[in-house]
Amino acid sequence: MNAKIHPMSVVDPAARLGAGVTIGPFCSVGPDVVLDEGVELVSHVAVAGRTTIGARTRIYPFASIGHPPQDVKYKGEPSTLTIGVDCLIREGVTMNPGTEGGGMKTTVGDRCFFLANSHVAHDTSIGDNVIFSNNVMCAGHVKVGNFVIVGGGTGLHQFIRVGDHAFIGGDASAQPQDFWARPRWIWLRRPATGEQIKLVYWQDGKLVQDAYMKVSWFLRDVRFQAMLASGTNPAIKNALKRGVISQENLTPWVLMDPMLLDILYAFSAWLFYFGIEEPLLVTSGFRHIVTNAMTEGAVRDSWHIKGGASDIVVPGVSPKALAQFGRWLSGGGVGLYSSRNFIHVDRGRVRSWTG
Fold first, then answer.
1. Exactly one of 54, 66, 140, 348 is catalytic; which is it?
2. Mean pLDDT of 274-279
3. Whether 140 is catalytic
4. Which of 117, 99, 100, 122 is nearest to 108 (CA)?
5. ∠ at Cα 274 (154, 57), nearest 5°?
6. Which of 32, 123, 221, 311 is catalytic?
7. Is 123 a catalytic residue?
8. For the residues 108-129, what does the mean pLDDT come to?
9. For residue 89, which of 122, 67, 56, 121 has the smallest C-alpha distance?
10. Which pLDDT score, from 0 to 100, does residue 281 have?
11. Catalytic annotation on 344?
12. What is the pLDDT of residues 199-211, one digit of tens each?
């Protein structure tokens, strides 16, 4: 191993130390840590979690590397932090591993320089030759390109992208302010009918009426539509007889709540950010009061009846991960139905449950 460890440091025997590693006084190194050859922990450095630090990286006092993410949704999942070669990490720097809701990993490239008290949050990806000046605050899910310089005191908002060779001045605030101002699009598919729709429903500060009508029809109650097409249906006839519905209610669609469309837009943009260019599979949108009464587990005042809810699936993405993003988004209700492989989202009050 040929590592040099100060007697006043605590290094777990299971930690993997490369040749020429130097660990100064008052450091702690956890059991799942990997320090490649030539890494130096100057003093008072704490390295924890499933953290790998590349060759010849030097870390200065009071840095906290690989401790649990500052994310209330983190439940101890075995996520990772990987730091490249030849990095300089100065005093008080903090870096956190990933979370299940963001890919399970945080990565830092080669030859990066992090000045005192800068922060790299969970699920962030930082390229090569990046400089963070003092007190840079990088939130979760950020992507930073190569040869980027970020001035002191700058805040990088979650989910933003910073391109190669960007220079951000000190005390700036890099936020995705245009996310809701830019055209909002929606990409959906109905497995029950094979239909697919992809269009911009909101632009220049307002709904695009033709697109809004098309999306609302797309999210219709296909089950009730089939019942109407079959002629006299006993359930419909009974509902009319009891006064539950009137002739005016004999329609399979309504104008959907625009806030629901915004929620679906946010899901699509989140998936696109991680390279998943697929439509959301909609298993239920608007639900007529008749079919809602026929649906197992459906509540009487469901947001489906009001045109404000949808049940969605994304192949290859676990319902748990989708629900975690929905809870982070805080756009309304989020129901996780893992056994049936879907989640429910609605524009009601912020809440969550498991079904």
1. 140
2. 85
3. yes
4. 122
5. 55
6. 123
7. yes
8. 97
9. 56
10. 97
11. no
12. 999 998 899 999 9
